[in-house]
Amino acid sequence: MIPIKVRSIKLPKELEQALKTRAREKGVSDSFVMREALAEYLVPDKEDSARDPRSFAALTADLAGCVAGPADLSTNPRHMAGFGR
Question: What is the pTM of this model?
Fold first, then answer.
């Protein structure tokens, strides 16, 4: 078992509420959220990218819609002519 050191911290009311909300959303304890946040803050260059909570969609969100053209080729029968032949 990994040894755990207990810490006590003081939080402003707004930060405490945000912590409780995040823990409730994720279905985890406040302590888990704080450990996760500290790990990300203190060790931002982790080589273990599997722990990265961001999805491919989140990482490329700024690229969505950056190309000009029809919104959705699959809904226009003219663009689908001959598909599958």
Answer: 0.49
Distance CA 23, CA 17 (A): 10
Q: Are 56 and 50 in contact (CB under 8 A)?
A: no
Cβ-count burial of 19 within 10 angstroms (0-12 exposed, 13-18 middle, 19+ buried)?
middle
Distance CA 50, CA 77 (A): 41
How many residues are recorded in the chain? Answer: 85
12-37, pLDDT tens digit by residue? 999 999 999 999 999 999 999 999 99
Q: CA 61 to CA 55: how far, in whole Å?
A: 10
